[in-house]
Design goal:
By secondary structure, this protein is an alpha/beta fold. It is 28% helix and 21% strand. It has 16 helices and 24 strands. The chain has helices spanning 10-15, 55-58, 86-94, 97-100, 147-159, 200-203, 226-234, 238-252, 258-273, 288-308, 358-364, 367-378, 407-416, 450-455, 457-475, 478-481, and strands at 3-8, 28-33, 49-53, 105-108, 112-114, 134-140, 163-168, 188-189, 213-214, 277-280, 320-323, 335-337, 342-344, 352-355, 386-390, 420-424, 483-488, 492-500, 503-511, 516-521, 531-534, 540-542, 547-552, 556-561. The protein is globular, with a radius of gyration of 25 Å. Mean pLDDT is 93; it is low at 1-30.
Amino acid sequence: MKKLIIVLTITSLLSCDMIVTKKEKEIAMVEVVQPSVNDEVPFVWENANIYFLLTDRFKNGDTSNDVNFNRTKKPGKLRGFEGGDIKGITQKIEEGYFTKLGVNAIWFTPIFEQIHGSTDEGTGVTYGYHGYWTKDWTNLDPNYGTKEDLASLIEVAHKNGIRIVMDAVINHTGPVTEKDPVWPKDWVRTDKQCTYDNYENTISCTLVKNLPDIRTESNRDVKLPPQLIKKWKSEGRYEQEVAELDAFFERTGHPRAPRFYIIKWLTDYITEFGIDGYRADTVKHVEEYVWQEFKIECDYAFSEFKKNNPDKVLDNNDFYLVGEVYNYGIGTGQWFDFGDKKVNYFDKSFHSLINFEFKSDARGNNYETLFNKYSNLLNNELKGYGTLNYVSSHDDGQPLDPKRLKPYATANKLLLTPGSSQIYYGDESARSLIIEGTNGDATLRSNMNWEAIETDARTQNILEHWQKLGRFRAKHPAIGAGLHQMITAQPYYFYRSYSKDNFNDLVVIGLGVHKGNKSIDVSKIFKEGDSIHDFYSGVKSTVQNGRITIDSKFDIVLLEKI
């Protein structure tokens, strides 16, 4: 397919009713790529629409596993296990919930076996419902399900074109409780709490009191923790686990240091199940070279899975690694500043970083300023890498719209901004983020509001808007991975273009435009006689004299060539 290069002079810009700033009083070179109508849409992580959920709070698919290890103390509000599990996620995939939302990747909180006991740090009895208090990386917590459940989830997800991203924790074990002894001193440190005022005081320390910090800097050989040896022997798998560890260290030549044990245990889930990616937890609290080592082993495991399971290979994408570098913002490019040291976490490690800056950008800027900023950054300073934008999460106490007063505009900004998007479970259904009687981040972690989705008209209307935007995004890599260009400021129309290999993609979008009959100048984008479909309203039109007419009751159009 040939590329059409259009040179827009000031005269032609003005003819499109564009507001021209002083900076724009230059000849603008704009590349418009005619779409490949019949080509299969490729999946690209730069355009991924990732759904992030707390495994325990999304959907209870198996009530028989709700209580394990005698976790029966009365917890603080939303601080105990609520019943959500792997089977619940699988059920919603099978029902088409994610497909209707345009989701093409699911990231869920860790499902490894959690501490058996509980803590009470002034917020009420708390169990490891969230998945970040690991007791045994080699086993799943029965509250979430079994390895057979995980295998089924991945199989069903892949059949529906959905990738699976698990959550990797290398920084710490679970807290010490009456049921969960501390790991040996050559494995963890417990004596120094982070002050976060420089590089050293962010890494070689515990995040909070009673959260033992893995000695990720150590290269000393260490023996397995006694509690794991005892546990594995009681489960009848000690010899097998030791044999696998011996084979791993023999192959890699790594010292038997704490981090390499954990890296081995995490990458086993790639080799065995064929997961598609990891979101790495607490990245800046671990030495940056550890993530480079992790990537090497992830890539190796993924290649081994593909080699051994050619019938299960989805495409040629690399294994996906996205990092949580708390407070990293896209505006700093590839660097994170500790004050006394700058670190590039993209270097030989992460494909993308979670973008903590997006909320403030979305709150403080209009659409064009927001979209233009992200397009420029991703095609310059961050070219070859990605960003994961979000508006709310499980531990961010300042979500973009905590009262869910602007769910439509929130969807527009999250799902139409260049970069990958992260939908936190319930963003699409205005699940409340303000829960009375909770302490701390528990207010962000209520159960998914399935009843409202089934019975409440407002919730259904909000969900429908998110679904339309999400499915349009899934069809068009140009939205997240393409180049952004404004067409007119008033009314606000823009286009996105994307071209890679033999695939070309082009869309035109209007936001806050006139309701009713809309005559739209697309002469610089589409060809005379092209058939154009408004994905939002379902209305079709043909380009005549450089214009199309869309008669709909909505103030948004999502235009694609058909």
